[in-house]
Amino acid sequence: MAILEPVKVAGSTISKTTLHNQDFIQEKELKIGDTVVIQKAGDVIPEIVEVKKDKRTGEETEFSMPNTCPVCGAPAVREEGEAAIRCTGIECPAKLFRNLVHFASKEAMDIDGLGENIIQQLLDKELIKNIPDIYTLKFEDIASLKKNGKKFAQNLVDSINKSKENDLYKLITALGIRHVGSKASKLLARKYKNIDNLMNAEYDDLSMINDIGPIVANSIREFFLQDQTIDLIQKLKQAGVNTIAKEEENIDNRFEGKTFVLTGTLEDYTRGEASNIIEKFGGKTSSTVSKKTDYVLAGEEAGSKLTKAQNLGVTIINEEQFKQMISL
Ligand SMILES: [Zn+2]
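A: This is the predicted complex of the input protein with zinc ion.
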C-alpha cells in the first residue's frame, strides 16, 4: 500500500492506495516521497495512475521490498512466475492468523461467529495456537471474550461442532492449498472420496484431472508431503472432523428448462405426484398454458387447458407417453 497525505476525492478522504506488487511499483517508477495522481472509481480501492516526476525535489528514495517477513523475520521469497512475495516462516503469526480466517470462512468450513476479530482475540489470549485448537476451545474461554458472552459462546460452539460434519470439499478448500479454491476442491473430493486418498495421490494422477493441470498438481503434492500437513490432518481427524466425501445423488436433469402443464385426471398419479416427478428431473410445472409451455400432460376429462394447448400448437402428451418419458 501507498500511504498518502490525505486528499479529498469524490467526497471521501483518501490516505491509502493499493500498489498491487513490486512490478507495479517498478513499472510506475514510484519512489517514496513522490507526488502522484490517484483515481477512485466506485467502490474500487483507489489507485495510482501517474507519478508527477516534475514535482520531484531529489529527496525521494527508492523503495525496496523487504527480504524478510516484517512479522516473524523468516525469509520472504518471490517464486518464479509469481507477483507476490511470501513469508517462508512455518510458524509465522501473520500467516497463522490468515490461515485461521480462511479456514473458518464461509466457502471453507463456514464457522459462523469465528471472524477476524474473534480469531485475533483468541490468538492474543493464546487460546488457540493452530487450526486444530479451534476444535478444543472451551465454552468458558469463548464466553470470556465478550460481556455477557454466554449466548455468543453457545452459538460459536454449535457452529464449530456443525463444521465437523462438513462435506470433504469444504475441508479441502479450508486447508488453503495454494491454487486450490472451492472449484478445484470439489473436483478433488469427487475423484478421491476421502482425505487419505488425496494425500497419497501421485502427481501424474492429479495432473490428469480436467481443470487441475501441472502447477496445481504440484502445489497439492508439495502441500501433502509436509510434516505439518500430515500432523494437521491427523489432529483434525482426532477432533472428529469429517474427511470423507458424502455420496452424491445421481442427478438426472432430463427435464431441465422444460415447463409442463397438468390437466385432467391421471390414472396412476395425483397432480402433486406428477409435479414432484417433473421437478425431480429438473423440470417445472405451471398452471397456465402459454406459448412457453413445452408439454401439456392431459389426463381424463381434460378441459380448457387442452383446447388452449391445441390452439397454440403445444405438444400434448398422455399418461402413457409421460410414463415413457420418465422411465429409466
Ligand atoms: Zn512471517
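The chain has a mean pLDDT of 92. Residues 93-163 form a domain with the DNA polymerase; domain 1 fold (CATH 1.10.150.20).
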